[in-house]
Write a structure and sequence with these properties.
This protein is of the alpha+beta class. The protein is built from 17 helices and 16 strands. It binds histidyl-adenosine monophosphate.
Length: 458
């Protein structure tokens, strides 16, 4: 069998690849209004960054990273040689750790500076078991705001994400926003202990993995998909009953801003997220129907300690990421289809091969004048050239035959009204030469074609 794409990856074919470009452009437009500017970081980083940043006990780091060893001789390693930390590289499973690393490395938030507001879009890699909505290479669009701990940053970021979903066509009735606070280094240790003690009381009802988690990071048990564990964790102590005054105040202010903006949410005290760096605000956006278990289309929160974890100066942070592929599934569930990628304003059809070189040069002149023009490259019959023009969505077909050419003319047909007109080739070329000097956007193409051929409404 022919070689297939690796399991858990997807090709974005032209219609979708064009939609992905539109998706990113819409993100840049919406987030730009909130002051976010793009950043690009490498697709791989030192493994150490993810271990320290995301947390060694998380599934993402302990089970799902694609890790490679670079620049060292395999034979030496097998011989008992050691791997230098710098040589252990992992494909990024998420974008936050890399952005925080870059902010520290380039000192993007010097003391007293305004926060750095950064956005990114691109592939992330997690060696998960693939299923609908869960891939090994998937695209995220994310934002990170570093340098401010005010709750207005959190609220603004969440509102911006909800505005983006609306802009891209995911109806707000189809989504649910869950919010919670994870507390801080002052109040979380006591809460973690309370959960650990509760889990110890229910050890016999929990799975082995959760009993292991109880020792390393008991809060992870809230994420266990095992129904028995989920039932036990329902009754576990709630973080919201253990927040310190500052965290309670911060959480209250975030909710106040959301209320003020008319963004509805559900408080979920069991929402802990799968990455260890969060402090205070955490949130997730889920699609309510038709997505199965992989229904989170975005999520994030505050991470005021992450910068120090990776060796930078204390710098509070907030951010989120959305999953592009899951947004597409949500859009498809809402009945959206990708518009065709290929644009064709005009098709030049050849009656026979004797006019081919004139057609070739005419097509080129249309393109140079800012129009999307196409011709046949396979010696098709005139009938099938029309079929092709129709398939490509051409507004006008210019038919070039030996007789027309001899009289210096071309026959133009409006594909919508079927009106036809003989047009002077010299006049067409003069007009095109004039257009050639001006920049044209796609939006002006129909008017421009009508100006050339005058084959509008009949
Ligand atoms: P995350 O919740 O792990 O957060 O991922 C964000 C989104 O990426 C998810 O809501 C989901 O839509 C999508 N996603 C995650 N894994 C997969 C997968 N295997 N296949 C398809 N889509 C997936 C983060 O990554 C954090 N870095 C977000 C953040 C930014 N927190 C603070 N700043």
């Amino acid at each position: 069998m022919a070689i297939q794409a690796p399991e858990g990856t997807r090709d974005l074919l032209p219609d979708e690849a064009k939609f992905w470009a539109h998706f990113k452009a819409t993100a840049a437009d919406v987030f730009g209004r909130y002051g976010y500017a793009p950043i690009e970081t490498p697709l791989f980083e030192q493994t150490e960054l993810f271990v320290r940043g995301i947390g060694e006990a998380t599934d993402v780091v302990s089970k799902e990273m694609f890790t490679a060893i670079s620049g060292q001789n395999l034979a030496t390693l097998l011989d008992g040689g050691t791997v230098k930390a710098k040589s252990r590289l992992s494909l990024r499973p998420e974008g936050t750790a890399g952005v925080v690393r870059a902010v520290a490395q380039h000192d993007l938030v010097p003391q007293g500076a305004a926060p750095a507001k950064l956005m990114y879009a691109g592939p992330m890699f997690r060696a998960e078991r693939p299923q609908k909505g869960r891939q090994r290479q998937f695209n995220q669009v994310g934002i990170e705001c570093l340098g401010a701990e005010e709750p207005s940053v959190d609220a603004e970021g969440i509102i911006m994400l909800m505005r983006f979903y609306a802009a891209i066509g995911i109806p707000s009735e189809a989504t649910r926003l869950l919010v919670n606070s994870m507390g801080c280094e002052k109040c979380r240790p006591a809460y973690r202990e309370a959960v650990r003690a509760y889990m110890a009381e229910h050890a016999s009802e929990l799975c082995d993995e959760c009993n292991r988690r109880a020792e390393i990071n008991p809060l992870r048990a809230f994420d266990c998909k095992n129904p028995g564990c989920a039932a036990v964790m329902e009754g576990a102590p709630k973080i919201t009953d253990h927040l310190c005054d500052e965290c309670r105040e911060h959480y209250g202010a975030v909710k106040g801003y959301l209320d003020g903006a008319g963004v509805s949410y559900v408080e979920d005290p069991t929402l802990v997220r799968g990455l260890d760096y969060y402090t205070r605000t955490v949130f997730e956006v889920q699609v309510t129907e038709g997505m199965g278990s992989q229904n989170a289309i975005g999520g994030g929160g505050r991470y005021d300690k992450l910068m120090e974890e990776v060796g930078g100066r204390p710098t509070p942070g907030f951010g989120w990421a959305l999953g592009y592929e899951r947004c597409v599934l949500a859009l498809q569930a809402a009945g959206h289809a990708f518009p065709p990628a290929r644009r064709c304003d005009l098709f030049v059809a050849c009656v026979d091969d004797s006019v081919r070189s004139e057609a070739f040069s005419l097509v080129q002149a249309f393109r140079d004048a800012g129009l999307a023009a196409e011709m046949d490259h396979q010696h098709r019959s005139l009938k099938s050239q029309f079929k092709l023009a129709d398939k490509l969505g051409a507004a006008v077909v210019a038919v070039l035959g030996p007789d027309e050419l001899a009289s210096g003319q071309v026959k133009a047909r409006n594909m919508r009204t079927h009106a036809e007109r003989l047009v002077d080739l010299a006049a067409v070329r003069t007009l095109l030469a004039r257009f050639g000097g001006e920049a044209v956007g796609g939006g002006t193409a129909p008017a421009r074609i009508e100006e050339v051929f005058d084959v509008g409404e009949e």
